[in-house]
Design a protein that fits this description.
- The complex is a heterodimer of chains A (388) and B (148).
- Chain A has 14 helices and eleven strands.
- With 388 residues, chain A is α/β, with parallel strands linked by helices.
- In chain A, strands 3-2-4-7-1-8-11-10-9 form a nine-stranded mixed beta sheet, with helices on both faces. In chain A, strands 5-6 form a two-stranded antiparallel ribbon.
- The two termini of chain A are 16 Å apart.
- Chain B is mainly beta and 148 residues long.
- Helix content of chain B is 5%, strand content 34%.
- Chain B contains one helix and seven strands; from the N terminus they run αβββββββ.
- In chain B, the strands form two sheets. A five-stranded antiparallel beta sheet of chain B has the order 5-4-3-6-7. A two-stranded antiparallel ribbon of chain B has the order 1-2.
- The longest helix of chain B has 8 residues.
- Classes of the chains: A alpha/beta (388), B mainly beta (148).
- Chains A and B meet through helix 4, helix 5, helix 6 and strand 5 of A and strand 3, strand 4 and strand 5 of B.
């Protein structure tokens, strides 16, 4: 019997990037309504709900109450920015098991406006690692810079190579009317931007935006009943990589393990993929992830991204055609949601015409949560056109 | 989003970086007691012999719950570093400062600062030694370029 595959039938990215006048529950509701409308479904059709640490109050319970959902299953898996790819994996498993038919996944956040960090800062200060890590002025860019510096040391990766990733994202963002940073930049622009934490410049860092997004994951029966094209969930993989009792390795990520799991389930490999959405909190995040997913050998990422490899539609591996977190949107400091959304747009043939990958049949979306290489959640999805 | 930093008051005679030692717990008290005396002690697994960082009463390598605290040499080398030039809060006033992972001679790599020299001179592989920043509230382990 063939596997009972789930489909992503609806996606929605909030068009706003600064939402001072909307509450978090309002934004969750905005994006939920948008994704359900995209799927041709309504709130009454939802029988499963998924949200992460960005959901206010009691998480799935508070939001199911606010939205009036009647759920047969819920899941509040929290793994930072990768959470929403895990939600797709978990929803697909629930659908395969017959536990639900229409799963709603939502994200909302307002770091541009300000306020408390997602999940609350108390959680971080009570973490067992906190007394040993919070004394040193560790910033988020600083943590990623440590990985970039080590990668440069081991493999000769250069700032110019990292900048190529930002350049590709910016060339894509110019076609996105909602992009937070819509102007193309050059390698020279990236290198001339202020150094934040060596070797990462300001333009190596993602944007900080309010906003959100939602997905509707459905059973094959529901997918067949809907007029819109869906994307099929062909494979999913999850990994947690941590400090391993102090044996920290900064040049590999959990993608080294989540990628093969997803490819094996999908029955394909890196060479088969037409488009990738790669989590891009920083340029270095993309470079190391591409290596770990097998798109090039470990240490070759710098050379791999040179020469427009990532630029759509004609680069060898078009990536993040919405402009990614580097230029378009990083809602709630959590970029996994928009990675899935743009992959679905590509598979539906609904990316911007200037960036649509011709005959895009297989797409990969990868999420990264937490701190690169040291305490992180990695999640990989392989998605196909509806008939895959 | 910036990583959370504690915000209690504190200063350091040993360096110009903000120093606010964390509250201790029974599980990690030996670590902070040793630091107060200018030494690093870490738990070593009774079963598999791994030096464990961050300190805990559990060995994540083999699952053993019996550890013995042992003194480390306090010497190591820089595994990676970043000169941080922009930071929020109190650390903003301390830039540029060096965030680093130091690999102790015993094996574990720990997050820390490299202090006591030109920030631009820090490099991967640089040999460093412990420098404890003390306040009346406790102590924080940092590293300086090794003498000789």
């Amino acid at each position: 019997m063939p596997p009972r595959r789930a489909h992503i039938a609806g996606v929605f990215e909030h068009p706003g990037r600064h939402l001072p006048d909307r509450t978090l529950p309002q934004v969750h509701a905005d994006v939920a309504a948008g994704a359900l409308e995209d799927a041709g479904l309504g709130f009454g059709d939802v029988d499963a709900y998924y949200s992460a640490g960005d959901a206010p109050g009691f998480g799935v319970l508070s939001m199911a109450d606010y939205l009036g959902l009647r759920c047969r299953t819920v899941d509040s898996t929290e793994s930072g920015g990768s959470s929403y790819l895990l939600h797709v994996q978990h929803a697909a498993a629930a659908i395969a098991a017959g536990d639900c038919h229409v799963a709603l996944v939502t994200l909302a956040g307002k770091p541009r406006t300000g306020g408390a960090a997602p999940g609350g800062s108390a959680r971080f200060s009570s973490a067992p690692e906190a007394p040993f890590e919070n004394q040193y002025g560790l910033t988020v860019p600083g943590g990623y810079a440590l990985a970039a510096q080590r990668h440069m040391h081991e493999f000769g990766t250069t700032s110019e190579q990292l900048a190529e990733i930002k350049v590709a994202a910016s060339l894509h963002a110019q076609h996105n009317p909602n992009a937070f940073l819509p102007d193309p930049v050059t390698v020279e622009d990236v290198l001339a931007s202020p150094m934040i934490s060596d070797p990462l410049h300001r333009l190596d860092c993602c944007v900080i935006t309010d906003g959100g997004g939602a997905l509707v994951v459905v059973s094959p029966e529901v997918a067949a009943s809907l007029p819109r094209r869906t994307a099929t969930v062909l494979g999913a993989g999850t990994a947690v990589k941590h400090a391993d009792a102090g044996r920290i390795d900064l040049t590999h990520t959990g993608a080294l393990w989540s990628g093969p799991l997803a490819f094996e389930q999908a029955g394909c490999g890196p060479a088969d993929i037409d488009y990738v959405s790669i989590y891009d909190s920083f340029t270095i995040t993309v470079l190391i992830t591409l290596e770990d997913l097998g798109f090039c050998a470990k240490g070759e990422g710098g050379r791999f991204v040179e020469g427009g490899t990532l630029q759509a539609p004609h680069g060898a591996l078009p990536f993040n055609t919405d402009g990614g977190g580097l230029c378009n949107n990083h809602p709630g400091n959590r970029g996994g949601m928009t990675k899935v959304i743009e992959a679905v747009r590509q598979l539906r043939g609904e990316a911007h015409p200037a960036l649509q990958v011709p005959d895009c049949r297989l797409a990969l979306a990868h999420g990264t949560g937490g701190s690169l290489a040291t305490r992180m959640g990695s999640a990989t999805l392989v998605l196909g056109q509806e008939d895959e | 989003m910036a990583a959370p930093d504690d915000t209690s008051a504190g200063g350091s005679a040993a360096s110009s970086l903000p120093t606010s030692p964390p509250p201790t717990t029974p599980e990690t008290q030996p670590y902070f007691d040793a630091l107060a005396e200018g030494r690093i002690e870490l738990p070593v697994c009774d079963a598999c012999g791994h030096w464990i960082f961050y300190p805990r009463s559990f060995c994540p390598v083999c699952g053993c719950r019996d550890v013995t605290w042992r003194e480390a040499t306090g010497r190591g080398s820089v595994y990676s570093y970043s000169v941080t030039r922009q930071a929020p809060g109190r650390w903003g006033g301390a830039t540029p400062y060096v965030l680093a992972y130091v690999e102790l001679d015993e094996g574990p790599r720990m997050l820390t600062n490299v202090v006591g020299g030109d920030v631009e001179a820090v490099h991967i592989g640089m040999v460093v030694e412990l420098e404890v920043a003390r306040t009346e509230d406790g102590a924080v382990p940092r590293f300086r370029p090794a003498a000789g």
